Each structure stands twice: as C-alpha cells, then as structure tokens.
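Possible race condition, two jobs.
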Amino acid sequence: MGEHHAPPFSLVDVFRAAERVVGVERILFGTDSTFFPRGWWRDIFDAQMQAVKALEVTTQQARLIFGGNLARLLKL
C-alpha cells in the first residue's frame, strides 16, 4: 500500500478555514517568522494580505485581522 498524503493547504485555504471555524473577529496577523533573521518580512505580509483579499472579506473585516483584533485584546 502506498502512503496517503493530504494535499497541501494554501494560505487562502488556511485563512478560509480559520474564518469559517472562529470568524474574522478572532484571527490575528502575526509578524514573527521562522526564517533567519527573525522579524517582520514584507513578502509574508503581502502573501497574507493577498490571501485575505481572496476571501472577499470587507475592508473592516480585513482591518480586524491586521490590527483591530489585537488592539481590542490589548484594551482588556
């Protein structure tokens, strides 16, 4: 028997699943990366921004993901 591998998930797939399971009010954009040197990478931000655009969320929902949700959490 051959090995069975699940198809790889795209970034859009991951965002779509997160949106469906927890909603845009609970998704946070993260700036840390596993690449060296660590820190914020423009290409990672751009890829995540394109994935969110592919979900066809509203501008307000995208703003929640890219900062609004964190701002709300930090006010607690």
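Job #2 (started ~2 s after job #1):
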Amino acid sequence: MERIKKLKEFLAATPDDAFLQHALALEYVKMGDDNTARQLFETLLQKNEKYVGTYYHLGSLLERLGQEEKAAAVYKKGMEVAKEANENHAYNELQAAYENLVY
C-alpha cells in the first residue's frame, strides 16, 4: 500500500507521467486488484497509445480474466505500436503472447 500511496503522490505532481501511471497499474496487479489495474492501463493507452509496455500487461490481464478476444486485439495493437517505434524486444514479446493465445 505504501508504494501505491507514493505513486499517487508523484502522479498528483505530474499527472501525465506515463511511467508512473504504468507503475501504479502494476502495483494493483500485484495486489490482485485486476479491475483497478485494467482501468489504469486502459486510461493510460487512451492518453498515450505509444506506451508500448502497457500492451503486454493489459493483454495478460485480459487473458487472466478470460477475455481472450480482447487480449488478442490488445497484443495485436501493441505489435503495431512496437513496430512503428522500432522496439523489437517488445514486438517479439507481444508476438509470442499473441501466438500462444491464438494458436
């Protein structure tokens, strides 16, 4: 809880910081609060669709929730964004997650 409190304090000072938003969502994942994490991941991608790292974590969360079609769409979109950004490592991780889910 202390980490969440600190991250929220930092976000109050810099509300558009994508890294802090992503980190906060991950803390909620660790706590098992998938609904809050999902909302934070989705809000982050609405504001900053180029934040590549979020696609993998949101897709994974959606898989855990049994929403395979949505997870596949998130992975696919993440692959497009990663490819545009020349982020090969992220692209490969997203592709592997997508293939494991779909095939």
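Residues 2-102 form a domain with the Serine Threonine Protein Phosphatase 5, Tetratricopeptide repeat fold (CATH 1.25.40.10).
Logs attached separately.
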